[in-house]
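subagent[fold] <- orchestrator: predict structure for attached chain, return tokens only, no commentary.
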Amino acid sequence: MLKTRGTMSLAPIVLFVYNRPWHTQQTVEALQKNKLAQESELFIYCDAAKNEVVKTEVDKVRAYVKSINGFRKISIIERDKNWGLANSIIDGVTEIVNEYGKIIVLEDDLVTSPNFLNFMNDALDAYQNEENIYSITGFSFSSEFMRFPKDFVDDVYLNIRPMSWSWATWKNEWEGIDWEVLDFSSFIASSKKTSQFNQGGTDLTNMLKMQMKGQLDSWYIRWTYNAFKKGKFTIYPRVSLVNNIGHDNTGVHCSLDERNLYSHSERNLNSIKIKKNITLNKAIVSNFNKAFNIPFFIKIKRAIKAVLIYAKVF
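subagent[fold] -> orchestrator:
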């Protein structure tokens, strides 16, 4: 049963960890400071080491998560073999969201502000019956990269691209996703469709190509492609409630080249006003997606790094 706060039920929090003990601790300690932590259930999925190279760090993470407190209930799921991030997330999210109907998801490098859980739960409750909403995120780019129109005064905005650096969704939006991407051939043959998909960022079609060629193991790009096919949107806060600390070359898809883009401390500690029946602001979408117009040499470095680390570790 979900814990209730007034008329709103609290979504379970699911945290995926692997071999980064310091990052995991930063993520958990920030989450413990959230105002709703003690009322929330926390599920921690610990993937198993693929090889001896990472086993020591994996064991450190497993030891640490067993010491965690500060939540209403904590469940730890230790994989007995290496699933890889994509399979672990798909399986874990499916299991929990099918039981609870909704879910809040974090990975081990996301430091949240104290009102993160309030915002995510409020938004899940507010938008659950709005058919055009696919997911919620607590992340937004810093003002250094993100520009809002002068007449835009809302605390939240819509975007066509989902965000993996903290997210929440409902069972009906998660179920039925085509993880095999059976329509890839017809999609990639259509310049119109690929162009439309890239309106969410010029990296998207290339990421999907890499996924289908076996050069990338990403749940995120397939989840994003599903949102595109459905024509649905994600709710973002105007000021980020999440600081991504993973862009230090310790993660598969994280690099120092992008650290300034994704890591910042502009985290709003005040309440966020939820606006219903929100409409897409094309200027905001355009400004947001400029962050993904990454120089070509960085794209190549990132692609090579992802392939090499995937082959060795995951």
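orchestrator: received. Logging for downstream: Residues 296-312 form the longest helix (17 residues). Confidence is low (pLDDT under 50) at residues 251-266, 296-300, 305-314.
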